[in-house]
Amino acid sequence: MKKTILAIAIPALFASAANAAVIYDKDGTSFDVYGRVQANYYGEHDDADGELVGSSRLGWSGKVALNDTWSGIAKTEWQVSAENSDNKFNSRHIYVGLDGSQYGKIIFGQTDTAFYDALEATDIFNEWGDVGNFYDGRQEGQIIYSNSFGGFSGKLSYQTNDDVAVKVTDVGQGVKEDEVFGPDVKRNYGFAAAAGYDFDFGLGLDAGYSTSELENKTTNDKGNKDEWAVGAHYAINGFYFAGMYTQGKIDNDNTGWDGKGRGYELAASYNVDAWTFLAGYNFTEAKNNTTSTSYEDQVDETLLGVQYNFTSKFKAYTEYKIQGIDDRDDEWTVALQYNF
């Protein structure tokens, strides 16, 4: 689902993009800067020791008209950690491309794959959520084409060779690639596709598929990770509801080892004046034929949240994560966030 539709349903959650500072906008050329600064206090149930953590995010986007139809576009966005944190700058989106209006958009670089379009509708929390799936996260080296017509939207993405597949997520949040392929795994290529349709009365439907070829650089064992997802969302009178179901699988063609997972996410929000109330549930289960023969729960989380917007640029929120797996503690956070 498109962020513009989400912003209508739950406007308080996307303040930073909406409040981007326009540095230059003239004769078809524009340049915007945006970002946020926030401080979170994190705690766990029955644990008196909490932690106050600061973080910030900074990005810019540019556009220049080439003719009446085509424009050159670019975007960068970084997550900036606090002084004593590791990985001070983490790149989120870095791409350049062409916007052809009715002919669609094509970009080159690092961002979310097309598969994320099938997951986006349930990704509405400030802090947690979005873990009832097996998505690899933002990837570098991509070529992405997207277009929309009426209520239809579609996207295709292709990822070139990535010598270190560091962002490949575990199927089921617990079935490791090294259990299937051994250590030192690279991605030879990746492909994803997504399609959606938004009805005029607030209902939207989404579906996506992703596949990538993985290879152990030492043994040359090869195989694939495949996943698919379907979802729906509905917005009416300040209420928003979304659900998603997905399955994923990793196969090693040389050894016959594999890992399988399935999961789903539910999310809801209600927005009234400056207040937004959120609730959600994430669940995944997984198995691999090297250590288990039956599915085991990997994620079982109930999420609750409240957000208050002092202005369009400044907000406070609190979220609570209730763990359904016995050996994991409940978690909570309280935060202040400034957007520009």
Automatic annotation (TrEMBL):
Keywords: Membrane, Signal. One of its GO terms (biological process) is monoatomic ion transmembrane transport. GO terms for cellular component: cell outer membrane. Residues 7-321 form the Porin domain. GO terms for molecular function: porin activity. The keyword Membrane applies. Residues 1-20 form the signal peptide. It is a multi-pass membrane protein. InterPro entries: Gram-neg_bact_OMP, Gram_neg_porin_domain, Porin_dom_sf, Porin_gammaproteobac. It is found in: Cell outer membrane. Coiled coil: none annotated. Belongs to the Gram-negative porin family. This is Outer membrane protein.
